[in-house]
Amino acid sequence: MTAPVTEAAGVAPRTVVHTAAVAAPAGLCFDLVAQVERAPQFFATHLHAEVAVGDDGRESVERWVLLPGGAVRHWTAGRVVDGEARRIVFEHAGGRPPLAGMRGEWTFTAQEGVSDGSGAGGLTTVRLEHTLSFADGTSATEAERAVADIDRGGPAQLAQLREVAESHGRLTGRTVRASARALVPGASAADVHERLADAVDAHGAGWAVARVADRALVLKRVPGPDDRLGAVTARLDLGQAPEGVQVTLSAAVTAAETGPSPAALGRRLPAVVNRALLRLTEAAQAPRTA
Fold first, then answer.
1. What is the pLDDT of residue 95?
2. pTM of the prediction?
3. Within this chain, do residues 259 and 164 fall inside the same structural domain, yes or no?
4. Which range of residues forms the domain containing residue 63?
5. 22 and 165, same structural domain?
6. How many C-beta atoms surround the C-beta of residue 195 within 10 A?
7. Is residue 1, in this structure, part of any structural domain at all?
8. Where are the alpha helices (DSSP H) in the chain?
9. 237 pLDDT band (50/70/90 cuts)?
10. Mean pLDDT of the chain
11. Among 196, 205, 214, 258, which residue's CB has the most CB atoms within a 10 Å radius?
12. Which domain CATH number covers 266?
C-alpha cells in the first residue's frame, strides 16, 4: 500500500513495492527476468528485447511490449544485472509526463528450508520496487494516477512471472522450433526490410510486429480466447551478402495443454516455416505498384 500524495511545492518521488511468493527456484526466477531476450515465448505481454552491454558492464535494454488491444509500446531502459546477488537494478531513459523518470529493482530471495510442496525445488520471494520522480508542475491527482498504474502493473508482472516459473518445465517441453533461409538476389537489406514490413502489414492480421532497424522484423501472434497454441513467435533476420540479401525465418510454437502434441508440431512446423518464407521473399521481389 502507498501513502496518498499531498499538494506541495512539487511532488516528492514515490516508491512502490510489490512482492510475490513463487513456487520455483530463485535461480530460475532470476533468469526469467534477466534473460529478457527469451521472454517473448512465454510471457504474454513481451514482444521483443535487444540488449547491448557497455564498457562499464551496464546494459541498455530496448523493449517492445504488447498493450491491451494489441498496440505495441517501445522504450529503452538501462540496467545492472548482479547474478551473484540475484538483483537487477533498472532505470528508464527519460520519462513521459507526468513522470520525469522511473527506476527500480528486482530481487529474488530463496526461502531456505522451505519446500514448495511439489518437489520442484524451492520457494522464492520476488520483490519488485519502483521509484517514480515527477516532472515540475505535476499535480497530486496526476501523481496518484501514475502510482495507481504501477500498483496495477507491478502485481500483473509478478503474476506473469509466477505463472511462467511454476510451469516452466511444461512450457519448454511443449515448445517446438524451426528455421529456414532464402536469398533475395541483387537487393539491399534496407529495401528488403521495407518490403517485408509492408508484406507483414498487408497480410499479418493477428500478429504484433517489432521493427529492429534495417536488420530484423520480430512477430508474435496474438492468440484468440480458444487458441490451441499458447504462443507463436517468429523472427526475420536480414544479412547483406555480395549476391543479395540472406533472409532467415525462425519460428517457435508453444502448444497449449489442450493443443497438438510437440511431436505433431515438430513434424508440421518446418514445412509451414518454409512456405511462409517463400511467400515473404516473393513479396520482397515483386514489382512495386504505383
1. 74
2. 0.87
3. no
4. 14-171
5. yes
6. 19
7. no
8. 26-34, 140-166, 168-173, 189-203, 262-285
9. very high
10. 89
11. 196
12. 3.30.530.20
- 83 phi and psi angles, rounded to 5 deg: -65, -35
Res. 119 pLDDT band, cuts 50 70 90: very low
Q: Is 25 left (phi over 0), alpha (psi -120 to 50) or beta?
A: beta
If asked whether residues 85 and 228 sit together in one domain, one would say no
Grid cell of 210 as nine digits = 517489432
Q: Return the number of other C-beta atoms located less than 10 Å from residue 4's C-beta.
A: 8
53 and 98 belong to one structural domain: yes
Give the span between the Cα atoms of 30 and 161, in whole angstroms. 10
Cβ(196)–Cβ(284) under 8 Å?
A: yes
Task: For residues 163 and 179, state if they share a domain.
Answer: no
Cell of 259: 493443443
Q: How far apart are the C-alpha atoms of 197 and 290, rounded to whole Å?
A: 18
Q: How many domains does the chain have?
A: 2
Identify any residues that bridge with 197 across adjacent strands, giving them in sequence order.
Answer: none
Q: Contact, 185 vs 206, CB < 8 A? A: no
Query: Side-chain half-sphere of 6: how many Cα atoms within 13 Å?
Result: 2
